């Protein structure tokens, strides 16, 4: 992360180089005038060093500018986007080191080609403004890239979980005993658990907040009526924040407010810890192999695991994305979560993760209609069509699998989906893990050859899909039509230029 001192040095160096070039002075000429070495001047211009007051005075006199003009953090107009970037929270908080990028290297890049970097940064900011990208979009995208770099498996966090279980002598048999986590939080970390207050708070009820942590009193508010799995995740995450000493953290579940990347990263670490704690690595892997070893696809086997571990569908599928690449070599994997506010609302892709550069299907902000041929959407509709349970907090959960091949390609994926829905006015969601159909998958999943396994040709969105006579189409292929019109126009122009018409 760039600190304030680095930003000050870089801006000073950029201004110095800009003024020197405007005056038509070479580095050697300016160095002689100010009685400094050329190498020292180069380090100043690259933002590696900041001169003392007497040298700043000498430089300002040589360049014909005021002392305070040279030391201010304001850059010339054409370099303003660079100043905006350097002074923004994004670059200051972005963990460059996590991606192997040294701050000094970024400084060199900007200093060596300020005009080109300025044009590039201006372009990025313009795209961000046009698509209403917010800071949290960048942070969440950076987190996904970090997960993809590590195939979404983090040995250090797995070891932390094993160490925690061993030091506290906890039982890990499924389903995980919640009283163990309550005891650690209250006795070791001084928490007070409150399962009533959130149910009486109008804003919390409207937003369906699962939990709120009040740091001053160490009081954890949990919404009444949470499932056992939801409670386990909340408690496990709180344990992780304390055990891993993650101080910069969100205090509200499902919060849309993202303050820093450190907060986003710590929230991920705590969530990962909770999932690994509630679904012990070796046990879950052994159980999943049994499902994969069946000759026929049986959705009941997947639902039985969900019941056995007593966790939410998303927790279960997220845990699979950590174990399958590492232990079964299934790196060609994606994870999707779709949400629908009620039966009349559009489907929204709210979470995604792509390993091995599998970037389809992916989210878009174009208000287009996602392909209804995906098992993710089909199962949500099927779940809504089933009888509604008597208890509002226990919606219907269904499981499904499908071989999905992208239209016009040989790209085929085996998709497992868990979908949950209540009444037509209640929210619905589905979570999907997709695995590329290759020789490794065929060796791992016996029922892949089951002729009864559902197979569909799929695409991304209806607006961009040329599949003829699609029975699931929710919108006309307007983008395909626009592309055809554009191609016809360009062909006509080319023919006109060549004199063929």
Write structural notes for this entry.
This protein is an alpha+beta fold and 501 residues long. It has 22 helices and 9 strands. It has a 6-stranded mixed beta sheet with strand order 5-4-8-7-6-9. It has a 3-stranded mixed beta sheet with strand order 1-3-2. Helix 1 (4-22) runs parallel beside helix 8 (103-112) and helix 6 crosses helix 9. The radius of gyration is 28 Å and the shape is globular. The mean pLDDT is 86.
Proportion in β-strands: 5-15%
Helicity level = 40-55%
Number of strands: 9
Mean pLDDT: 86
Shape by Cα distribution: globular
| Subunit organisation of the chains | single chain
**Strand sequence of the main sheet, in spatial order?**
5-4-8-7-6-9
**What structural class results from the helix and strand content?**
alpha+beta
Quote the distance from N terminus to C terminus: 60 Å
Compute the number of helices.
22
| Low-confidence parts | none
User: How would a crystallographer describe the biggest sheet?
Assistant: 6 strands, mixed
Radius of gyration: 28 Å
Short account of what is shown:
By secondary structure, this protein is of the alpha+beta class. Helix content is 50%, strand content 12%. The mean pLDDT is 86.
């Amino acid at each position: 992360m760039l600190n304030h001192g680095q930003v000050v040095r870089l801006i000073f160096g950029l201004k110095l180089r800009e003024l020197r070039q405007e005056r038509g002075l070479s580095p050697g000429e300016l160095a002689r005038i100010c009685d400094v070495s050329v190498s020292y001047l180069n380090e100043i211009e690259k933002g590696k060093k900041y001169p003392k007051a007497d040298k700043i005075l000498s430089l300002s006199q040589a360049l014909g500018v005021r002392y305070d003009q040279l030391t201010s953090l304001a850059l010339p107009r054409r370099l303003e986007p660079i100043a905006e970037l350097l002074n923004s929270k994004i670059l200051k908080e972005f963990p460059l080191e996590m991606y192997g990028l040294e701050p000094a290297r970024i400084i060199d890049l900007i200093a060596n080609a300020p005009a080109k970097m300025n044009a590039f940064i201006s372009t990025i900011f313009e795209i961000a403004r046009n698509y209403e990208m917010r800071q949290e979009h960048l942070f969440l995208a950076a987190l996904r890239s970090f997960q993809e770099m590590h195939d979404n498996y983090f040995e250090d966090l797995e070891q932390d979980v094993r160490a925690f279980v061993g030091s506290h002598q906890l039982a890990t048999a499924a389903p995980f005993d919640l009283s163990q986590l309550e005891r650690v939080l209250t006795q070791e970390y001084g928490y007070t658990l409150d399962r009533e207050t959130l149910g009486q708070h109008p804003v919390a009820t409207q937003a369906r907040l699962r939990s709120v942590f009040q740091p001053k009193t160490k009081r954890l508010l949990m919404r009444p009526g949470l499932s056992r799995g939801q409670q386990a995740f909340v408690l496990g995450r709180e344990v992780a924040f304390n055990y891993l000493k993650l101080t910069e953290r969100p205090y509200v579940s499902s919060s849309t407010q993202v303050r820093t990347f450190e907060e986003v990263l710590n929230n991920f670490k705590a969530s990962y810890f909770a999932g690994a704690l509630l679904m012990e690595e070796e046990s879950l892997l052994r159980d999943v192999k049994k499902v994969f070893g069946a000759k026929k696809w049986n959705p009941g086997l997947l639902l039985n695991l969900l019941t056995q571990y007593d966790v939410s569908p998303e927790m279960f599928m997220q845990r699979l994305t950590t174990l399958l690449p590492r232990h079964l070599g299934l790196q060609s994997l994606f994870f999707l979560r779709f949400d629908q506010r009620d039966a009349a609302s559009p489907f929204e892709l709210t979470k995604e993760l792509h390993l091995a550069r599998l970037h389809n299907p992916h989210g878009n902000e174009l208000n287009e209609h996602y392909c209804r041929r995906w098992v993710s959407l089909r199962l949500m509709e099927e779940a809504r069509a089933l009888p509604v349970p008597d208890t509002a907090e226990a919606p219907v959960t269904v499981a499904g699998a499908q071989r999905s091949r992208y239209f016009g390609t040989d790209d085929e994926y085996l998709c497992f989906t868990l979908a949950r829905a209540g009444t037509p006015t209640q929210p619905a969601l589905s979570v999907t893990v997709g695995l590329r159909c290759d020789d490794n998958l065929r060796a791992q999943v016996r029922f892949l050859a089951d002729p009864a396994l559902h197979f569909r040709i799929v695409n991304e969105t209806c607006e961009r899909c040329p599949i003829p006579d699609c029975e699931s189409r929710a919108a006309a292929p307007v983008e395909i039509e626009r592309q055809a019109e554009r191609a016809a126009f360009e062909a006509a122009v080319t023919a006109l230029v060549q004199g063929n018409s």
